[in-house]
Amino acid sequence: MLRFFRTIRGKLLKENKVRTYLLYAIGEILLVVIGILIALQINNWNEVRIEKNQENVILKNLHFEFSQNLIQLNYDTQRIDTLKNALFEIISMIDAGPIQADEVELDKLISKAINSPTWNPSSYVLDDLKNSGGLSRLSNPELISLLFSWDRHFENLVETNSNIVKTGDAVLDYIKEYGSLRNADSQTVSFLNASKMNITNISLLTDVKFENVIDDHLFVSIYMLSELGKSKSKIEEILKASK
Prior knowledge:
Layout (H helix, E strand, L loop, with lengths): L1 H13 L3 H79 L6 H11 L10 H9 L8 H38 L2 H5 L22 H34 L2
């Protein structure tokens, strides 16, 4: 093709057709420029297509990760709600006094109260996006804003998880020192009987230290349920925006 163009230019120069040569040269330059622009446009289309495909993969992975987080969230919310209800019942027993308390029922409640359910959502996909700068490549500004909001909320969740573990450990440590852990455990596992020692957890209902550790654990569990409620709302928004 280039040889063909050179032949035409040479022929025009030999015939001294300068004006025609100039017009031809300009036309040739325009063809080259148009060819370059078309090539650039095709390249841009390909890059846009590749970026769109990459974004679709990211959205799919984000949607899957947060869908799984929501499933686990619903499960752990039920566990913490069970803990909260057990703690409330123990408070009611303390208020009613030891005479009204049923020993077996108290042991069942204590076996639930020493638990510390936590929720630890996966953040692998989001962390990878943050570390690679992939968040800025998402085309949905609403989704980007939701993910940044989730990142800040996640920091609160980590602290709340830590607090509920601490208050749960405080209840467990108290029972180990002043009550019968075996009596409580015997209500949840079939292979263990109540203690043969002359000990009962009923006496704990008159100890202010017991009331304090139960109250503290209850307060944190209620707060955690509130945070999990916020988490659920945020996840549902993210799932909607990442479809």
